[in-house]
Amino acid sequence: MNTIKSLIILSIVLFAGNVSAQQISSVDLQVTGLTCSMCSQATDESLRTLDFIETIEPDLNKNIFVLTFKKDKAVDFDQIKTKVEDAGFSVGNLDAVFNFNNTKVDDKGLAVAGTNVYQFLNAKDKTLNGPVKATLVDKDFMSGSAFKKKAAQVSLESLKSGSGMVNGKMTRIYHLSI
Amino acid sequence: MRFLKFLLVPVAVAMGTIAVQAQELYVFSEPASNMAAKSIGFRLTNEGVFSPSFSSRLIPELMVGFNKNFMLHGQGFFSDMDGKYKAEGAGLYAKYRFLSIDEVKSHFRAAAFARVGTSNRPTYSEDINLEGDNTGLQAGLVFTQLLHKLALSSTLSYSKAFDNIGDKTITGMPEPDHMLGYSLSSGYLLLPFVYKNYNQPNLNLYFEVLGKTNPENGRSYVDFAPAVQVIINSRTRVDLGYRFEVTGNLENRYNKNMYMARVEFNFFNALK
């Protein structure tokens, strides 16, 4: 009886640990229009106000910020974008390294991982495990002209609006290209 | 001839080898880009002329970025241009960015701005300077284009003068009414060649062309305004510039052949 109890507790702990474990290990964030270190500094300090960011490592020559995240906090890509725009600039590119753990991508390319819903543009009907590097191809996560091209290539309603029906609920969907 | 060569060679080498980076923190004009949202900046500007005798003006200025598109400056004007150092007036400047087209290595931004200034100085020129010399209003548009390594900005404005506080118009002197203004600015990042961290100082060079025309009679001037700028710790900015008249027929201009020295401190995320 005690053994069963212990097993139940252990599985709860493991399951809970699984849920809260950080799924996104790092992000390479490219910011456009930075012309001086003061602009980079303003962006850096704006990003630092986000409570889920652990470290920011700037590459001032390439205008790329490498972000890592706190283990117990959910990463909000939209907030990252808002903070860059608050500093007066735009996101040019966002590459993220996801740590998938048995994440199922359905026949339409849709996957739920942690609190986020992802639509894969070039993966379906498979199970993802381990680190996967993907590029976010949503509006305002790349230059306006690049997004227009992408939206014309991919005929997905959710890419244009940024959201779609998931389990009967209107949900924010991030679009990923592996 | 040999002396000329000595001068030209380093310039040519510099032009050829330095990967010139664009810079748009203009000294004599404002870019269409805004300061960061929720940040506060403080500026102290000293400007002055050496002729007919040395006189200078001190302008403390508080700048607030309310959101990514809207910012406001408040200024105070103090000078010894009428004898002793005294307060002349105050000014407000607001800028709203209404267009941003951002690509990876280029951007185009457009902003509208408005300025109101007061002054208790006597007027003796048809020129209008709302930063200390005149009471009036100004409105205009700024367009800034960053194209790889060149940042160009252009400003168009209209200024309307009202009677200065105390209405000390000097009889027989030209009276200010309205003015059209324009400017073309360019900026380059000279140092560092390669960034290592935020603490490295940046050295920037600017060249601006500033002009004004009285639409009533066509009298006008064009100034060239070179400037150098150092950015320390990525948050403190020091500017040193000089504007000189290249051509013009406006009498008794206030800011003819004027130097400008400025220090600016920035506090990011200062507002909640």
Q: Can you give a write-up of this model?
A:
The complex is a heterodimer of chains A (178) and B (272). Chain A has one domain (22-177): Alpha-Beta Plaits (2-Layer Sandwich). By secondary structure, chain A is an alpha+beta fold. Chain A starts with a helix and ends with a strand. Helix content of chain A is 31%, strand content 40%. Chain A contains five helices and nine strands; from the N terminus they run H-E-H-E-E-H-E-E-E-E-H-H-E-E. In chain A, strands 1, 2, 3, 4, 5, 6, 7, 8 and 9 form a nine-stranded mixed β-sheet that branches. Chain B has a single domain (26-267), classed as Porin, CATH 2.40.160.40. Chain B is built from one helix and 13 strands; from the N terminus they run αβββββββββββββ. In chain B, a hairpin with a 6-residue loop joins strand 10 (202-213) and strand 11. The model of chain B is unreliable at 1-20 (pLDDT under 50). The interface between A and B is medium-sized, with 30 and 39 residues.
Write the layout of secondary structure elements.
The complex is a heterodimer of chains A (178) and B (272).
Chain A: H1 2-20, E1 24-32, H2 37-47, E2 53-59, E3 64-69, H3 77-86, E4 90-105, E5 110-113, E6 116-120, E7 126-136, H4 144-153, H5 157-161, E8 163-166, E9 169-177
Parallel strand pairs in A: 6-9
Antiparallel strand pairs in A: 1-3, 1-4, 2-3, 4-7, 5-6, 7-9, 8-9
Helix pairs in contact in A: 2-3
Chain B: H1 2-17, E1 21-22, E2 40-49, E3 55-65, E4 70-79, E5 86-102, E6 106-117, E7 135-147, E8 150-162, E9 178-191, E10 202-213, E11 220-232, E12 236-248, E13 258-267
Antiparallel strand pairs in B: 1-9, 2-3, 2-13, 3-4, 4-5, 5-6, 6-7, 7-8, 8-9, 9-10, 10-11, 11-12, 12-13
